[in-house]
UniProtKB/TrEMBL annotation:
<dbReference type="GO" id="GO:0045165">
    <property type="term" value="P:cell fate commitment"/>
</dbReference>
<dbReference type="Pfam" id="PF00110">
    <property type="entry name" value="wnt"/>
</dbReference>
<protein>
    <recommendedName>
        <fullName>Protein Wnt</fullName>
    </recommendedName>
</protein>
<keyword id="KW-0217">Developmental protein</keyword>
<dbReference type="GO" id="GO:0005125">
    <property type="term" value="F:cytokine activity"/>
</dbReference>
<feature type="compositionally biased region" description="Gly residues">
    <location>
        <begin position="323"/>
        <end position="333"/>
    </location>
</feature>
<keyword id="KW-1015">Disulfide bond</keyword>
<dbReference type="GO" id="GO:0048513">
    <property type="term" value="P:animal organ development"/>
</dbReference>
<dbReference type="GO" id="GO:0005615">
    <property type="term" value="C:extracellular space"/>
</dbReference>
<dbReference type="GO" id="GO:0060070">
    <property type="term" value="P:canonical Wnt signaling pathway"/>
</dbReference>
<keyword id="KW-0272">Extracellular matrix</keyword>
<comment type="similarity">
    <text>Belongs to the Wnt family.</text>
</comment>
<keyword id="KW-0964">Secreted</keyword>
<dbReference type="GO" id="GO:0005109">
    <property type="term" value="F:frizzled binding"/>
</dbReference>
<keyword id="KW-0325">Glycoprotein</keyword>
<comment type="function">
    <text>Ligand for members of the frizzled family of seven transmembrane receptors.</text>
</comment>
<keyword id="KW-0449">Lipoprotein</keyword>
Length: 424
């Protein structure tokens, strides 16, 4: 993949190039040149002035929201880390993304489509997660699914009193009602202020089941819409929407963000007396980013090859044999595929065997291969027919990395001593 602008974005890198200690270690975030972990004060001076190559639109966004920008940049690094994980056995393994502006991918290979989608997903995911953590001034929990705490407590109190009236708890439970029941009883409607019976019957199974299924939105749902919008404004602004490169970028960016949105999960917390689950409060959380990467890897393997003619009409035309169409989909093994949720590309990938800066290929010389494999990590495939050497190697690798806001990563150092097969 050619990077038209060879600006070094080394100040973006969160990950250090090597770990010097075998213990769990805090790596400073070179994005902001911070030397301490924790919650720094993020200002335009500490963020925006350190970033080279920003467009005017991006600079305005950064000055307006430096904390969100820092979160977005951290999302880019999480995405690069994930890209390297999923393509670790491929000839092009995302390693070159760390040395350049990852937004400036100009080639339109299948690998380009995957990396663009993953970067857009990383920004949306990181910003939405930081919002829910209360780390960003411009956003918080998703307002649409945010229930008023007093209303939730009132709802719980009503259900508990109904349970008492129907015989849901015995005398032993009435003496240990939750604090919200007692503290808010004086504010209840008159029809709910009843004397607890001295002899109570247990509820019928169907009544108990219906009570267990009662839930309301509560907690703090991740504001994925805010993350999606910031990712779109940050990454989709470059280039004319009629240019085929820009259209491919915008399309694949949207597919990446959509994977995050489509895989939001509902988490719930039970409320009730003595460990019961009379009532649930639920909230939406972003999917694990490893899942996002895996789903996009599947789309990478089935990406659609489109015509490269730039007809200036904003429409992709799939090439024959793809089993897809731009609007309603096409046939693929008897099933219709919609291009709207698929990755697209219009340049056939080179072999990536040799170093070639014009296509962003680092080559495969020195790569470790698997001589017993028949897959893409085999020595015959990865070494491109050049053969391999067998060496005893002791090396240190960063492993089990966990990204933290803002802006550092915790990694362990894994030391390995083994015989390896290395491409000539």
């Amino acid at each position: 993949m050619e990077l038209s602008n060879k600006l070094r974005w080394d100040q973006f890198l969160i990950l250090a190039t090597a770990l010097m200690s075998p213990a769990l270690k805090v790596l400073c975030n070179d994005i902001l040149s911070l030397k301490v972990a924790g919650d720094p004060v993020l200002t335009p001076n500490s963020v925006c002035l350190r970033l080279a190559g920003l467009s005017k639109r991006q600079m305005r966004m950064c000055v307006r929201s430096p904390d969100v920008t820092a979160s977005a940049l951290q999302g880019i690094q999480v995405a690069i880390h994930e890209c390297q994980h999923h393509l670790r056995d491929q000839r092009w393994n995302c390693s070159s993304l760390e040395g350049h502006d990852p937004e400036d991918v100009r080639k339109c290979f299948r690998e380009s489509a995957f990396s663009l989608a993953l970067l857009a997903a990383g920004v949306a995911h990181s910003v939405a997660t930081a919002c829910s953590m209360g780390k960003l001034r411009g956003c918080g929990c998703e307002a649409k699914r945010r229930q008023d705490d007093d209303k939730i407590r009132l709802k719980l109190t009503q259900l508990q009193l109904q349970t008492l009236q129907k015989g849901g708890v015995g005398l032993s439970m009435t003496r240990s009602l939750p604090t919200e029941l007692n503290s808010h009883h004086g504010n209840l409607p008159a029809n709910l202020r009843s004397t607890h019976p001295s002899a109570l019957l247990k509820p019928l199974p169907d009544e108990l089941s219906s009570m267990q299924e009662t839930w309301e939105w509560g907690g703090c749902s991740h504001d994925v819409r805010f993350g999606d919008r910031f990712s779109r404004d940050w990454l989709d602004s470059r280039g004319s929407p009629r240019d085929i490169h820009a259209r491919m970028r915008i399309h694949n960016n949207r597919v990446g963000r959509q994977v995050v949105t489509d895989n939001m999960k509902k988490k719930c917390k039970c409320h009730g007396t003595s460990g019961s689950c009379q009532f649930k409060t639920c909230w939406h959380v972003s999917p694990e980013f490893r899942l996002v990467g895996s789903l996009l890897k599947d789309k990478f393997l089935s990406a659609i090859f489109v015509n490269s003619q730039n007809k200036n009409n904003g429409v992709f035309n799939p090439r024959a044999g793809n089993g897809a169409s731009g609007s309603t989909g096409g046939l693929n093994g008897g099933r219709r595929r919609s291009m709207s949720r698929e990755l697209v590309y219009f340049e056939k990938s080179p072999d990536f065997c040799e170093r070639d800066a014009s296509i962003d290929s680092p080559g495969t010389h020195g790569r470790i291969c698997n001589k017993t494999s028949y897959s893409t990590d085999s020595c015959s495939s990865l070494c491109c027919g050049r053969g391999h050497n067998i060496l005893k190697q002791t090396r240190s690798e960063r492993c089990n990395c966990r990204f933290h806001w803002c802006c550092y990563v915790l990694c362990e150092e894994c030391r390995l001593t083994e015989w390896v097969n290395v491409c000539k």
